[in-house]
Amino acid sequence: MPYNGKKGSRCVICTGCGACFGELHNMRSLATEGGNDSFPASGHFVIGADIGTTTIAMACVSPEGVVCDTYVGLNPQGEYGRDVLSRIVAAEDPQAAEAMRASVLGFLEEGVRYFLGDVIPDDLRMSIACNMTMKYLLLGRNPKELGKAPFHAANPGREGVRVCGIEAEVLPGFSAFVGGDLYAGRLAAAWEKFGGADTAGARPGGEIALEERAPEEKPPAHRTLLVDLGTNGECLLWDDSQICGCAAAAGPAFEGGAGRGVWGADLVHFLAELRREGVLDETGLLADPYFDEGILIGGIRMTQKEIRDLQLAKSAIAVGVQTLVGEGGMPDRVVLAGGFGYFLQPEDAITIGLLPEDFAGKILPGGNTALKGAILDASDITVTPEGKALDAMGRLLAGMEEAHREANALEAKILNLAQLPDFQEEFMQHTELNPFRLQET
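Given the sequence above, the corresponding structure tokens read:
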């Protein structure tokens, strides 16, 4: 069952609902580096929301920058289809489009009232992260252009929507299929500095004092790859000089076991174990005793069809990662976003060729980076004319200025994988369940 919005409740099995900011006892994460409740002290209540295709997650942060509570549930638009393309088609009916808009707006308003009651403070700040289809539907805009070639988003920028009488900010996106959830994820990654020399002088919560770095000092280049391993498989790679991204259509295969209590990270683990035990070959074929009926592992029966679906999904992600690295360079860190990335073990992803061996030691679970970024966006972060990002108290925030500039998102280079000349060949190569490398050692 998804996290139900009740204070103190927890999921027994991860449904990828988005409540977690990311905290694992055996791995570094975006949360464990800066603290799970570490946000700018803005002086007022802040609400962040992540509207996902499957779930909606909200969190309320106190004026002191501490998470008060979370409110999470299934996206009520699910009755119109599990994926964005189904909802784009459904939205061709004006009544269905209005119903989808009203249902999500109603969820957001329920969450705000759950946090704050019926009397909403005038100085409440709220930001919403969502993929481009969810944004169009929330704003009552026809998403038809997002579902057909050339898949152009005419309205990718920041916009407002009224929620409980206050003007909430809907974050900008990059393209039709690389949306505001990745914009927010980039903010979260910039806020949490770890794994590189540019953390020098940083204080808990991401602050850095003016006197702790000489004016002429410039932090070393730091390249980050953010991978959201969902149905749409959005990826974003950036450094000080460029941003590039892509969407790899993984489909629902990573969620294929959801109805049986097993989720994406577990399916990847099962596949990796079958490879390690020699029960499954690199082409995805089970050994003879299991070929017809499948194999029972961890109480779940893996059939030849499910394995094939997983191969196709992981191949799409691998091609997307390979293409981005070829375009923008090898990342210094790789942040896995969402519930899937929260529990995915890097060695399993590398064993089956979902992620390259080059990423070993660089992979970090980010938890719900979209929700965390939405909170940061609402926390009165401003960029001065000198290009410095400050919080509401006037403190300099380390590395936030580039991530918070909307113009940078709108100028990003977004690659259409299907239009690449070698896409089909590379896709077929990556269906093999073998580790792969992106560069020579």
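The first helix runs from residue 30 to 34. Try to locate this feature in the token string yourself.
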